[in-house]
Amino acid sequence: MSRFITIENLSSYMCQLKSIVSSLLCDHTSMKCVDSSSSSFEFFSCPIKLIEELNIIHPYHSLIIETLETFHNKYDGCSCKTLLFFFITFYNHLQILFDKNNQLIQKKIFNYLEQFIDQSLLIAKNNFIENLYLNLNIFHRICRFQKIYSDILYEVYLYFISSKQQIIHEELIKQFDNLNHITYVKYSEEKCLFIPGTIIPINKSIKGYKRTILIDGYILEDYIHIGYNNKLKLKQTSIKSSWIYIILSILEKYSIDIILCTGTIDTKLKELNHNKRIFIENISKKIFQLFEQNFIINYLTDINEENILLLNYLEYHNDPSIIFIEKGLTIIQYVPFENLISIKHEQFVHCLSRFRLILKKNFYLKGSGEFENNLYKYLYDNKKENLSIEYNFAYECFLECLKLFVNELLNHKELFEKNLLDDFDSKFDAWKTSIELLKIIMQIDNIILCLDRPVILNGCTIINKICVSQYKDLSVIITFNILLL
User: Fold this and answer.
1) pLDDT of 411 strictly over 70
2) What are phi and psi of 118, to 5 degrees?
3) Domains and CATH numbers, the chain
4) Which of 54, 62, 194, 430 has a CA-to-CA distance to 111 between 20 and 30 Å?
5) What processes does the entry annotate via GO biological process terms (predicted)?
């Protein structure tokens, strides 16, 4: 059973999104608190994460939040606020087209807007980019003057360039790509500490060199990876030749001290081990990437002497409970209480990501709305004569969005941080994504409400809602949940 329904309250929904992004646009240390229950709450400073948490109900919400999440994951949060702001601002200027049936006019306007973005990208490259020269001031500006993060990243940078007399640009980028970050609850105020190594989650004191193997898989009797041949016939009826005893005999034969495993490890195997060696499971694959590929095996029966690492395990002098190895680098962030872990980790990742993006390009754009203001002036002074109504409409729309973005920053001057630095790719991708998302929304034909097996929960009926769209000759179907009281 299904029926067509009309799309209502789209402007109201957009106002909800605008209020979220506007309140977070300028102050990069501001936080929103969401009370999820009577006993717990969570902080957010990223609008995408906040929107995910809020219970917003609208037929388009799943489509919009999925687009925002994809962009957020692509750039680790960078330019999310820009994407959301331009999406809403473009919508406010183009919503008049929602009531028109002339698809050709819509298509022309969107094409012109995309041309202006591509043109702006070239203008930026030729006129407004500045080459990167790293010092502490640059780190402060990239990190939105969140001093604790900029200082620690600068410390890491100095470590990289001092550890080698000449470090090439690509190698520096790779080092920052492999940087680990862990957040703990400790101390009465936030602290960031740098460790030239990688933390291993071991709950006992270990010092010195240990024979270690890396297993990318599971240590379970029924685990069979691709390419594994059961030549040893491990599953046998004899107790002495059972799978567990064969595995233990292999560990004894090669004198293995520590096993690092990306999957889980058989509980009985750990119990029979009698603390002779240490099993550590659910290790991140990122840690394994610090070593050469030929050290990694998929199953314990694949082991030979060439797969064994002699790793030096160290205690961190400020915190004896932390054990690390001399591979990679880690930043430990201490926060005063549990509810700050997620948001502080999020803020640090945003800063690190923006720096990595700028480092990869080796140049940046001036932030704090300065680039958008300069671009506005450039486009305004260099307007091409065009008699097309669609061209002029799109041109005015694009300029107005740039102007409103700058004005929005200035309207929050009490929170406004000047002299920020922006990365290149995420900014222009945010503009393009906002246009692509709006194109899809404006070409959705109908919403179909499907009453297929309604679920009764606490006296309320939960049904599925499906959005059907014709977009670029493709049928786009989006499912939603709706609660009927």
Assistant:
1) yes
2) -65, -40
3) 25-129+369-443 (1.10.560.10), 133-196+329-361 (3.30.260), 207-317 (3.50.7.10)
4) 62
5) chaperone-mediated protein complex assembly; photoreceptor cell maintenance
